[in-house]
Amino acid sequence: MPACATTFPPATPAAPSNVHAVPASDSQIHVDWQDNSSNETGFEIHRSVDGPAGAFVLLASTGAGVIARSDSALNPSTEYCYKVRAFNTIGGKTSSSDFSASACATTLAPLPPAAPSGTRVYTVSSSSIAVYWLDNSTSETGFEIHRSADGPAGTFVLAVSPEANATEAMSFGLNASTQYCYKVSAVRTGGGRPRTPNSRTPLAPPHRRRLRLPVCT
Asked: 164, CA 20 to 30 Å: which among 58, 145, 158, 216?
């Protein structure tokens, strides 16, 4: 009769420890850990978006000896939790350590986009005004144009919300022979709604169709 035996599974590596998660920006968290094993094939980093008691899913795998990884393309002002385990693969068989304790970090609040500048307004008709500005940002998700019918020191209310990369907008439904002043700000949504300071007071528009918009200074 033949004699048979089954080889042992791969030796289980020691679990990593001292996991740290540190926010690096509004979209990135840096994760590092202590390697306590000498026989791992690599590490698995698992992530939860529902806190330390939430469900963790595999985020990435690394090679042996790696003790850090950055997690990118995250949402601003959002908590992410991480835990790490070592694994050892031999002959197609894998043995994994216990997970480390979890570590959590919250991404930073998004920085406001650069403020627009050079705001100009032009009368188009008795009920509409065109607003132009320079887009100085690469991170805005849109703009907000606020309007005052009480002069530059009056109350400004939201009139138009153009999309990102816009440099002009129309303000409709205005009263004839009425002064209107405008301010433009860039906004960035996602994990908050930061706004830039308003652009400077509009310049005096040229005469068009015999209508004159008073200067707001």
From this structure: 216
Return phi, psi of residue 85, to 5°.
Answer: -140, 155
- From the list 80, 91, 96, 94, the residue with the least C-alpha distance to 31 is 80
- Which DSSP symbol is given to 137? -
**Is the pTM higher than 0.85?**
no
pLDDT in tens, 39-95: 999 999 999 999 999 999 999 999 999 999 999 999 999 999 999 999 999 888 899
Q: What is the number of alpha carbons within 13 Å of residue 66 lying toward its C-beta?
A: 18
89 & 138 share domain? no
Q: How buried is residue 153: exposed, middle or buried, by Cβ count under 10 Å (0-12/13-18/19+)?
A: exposed
Domain of residue 172, CATH code: 2.60.40.10
- Number of separate domains in the chain: 2
User: Residue 169 has which token pair?
Assistant: 């907008």
Claim to verify: residue 121 and residue 55 sit in the same structural domain: no
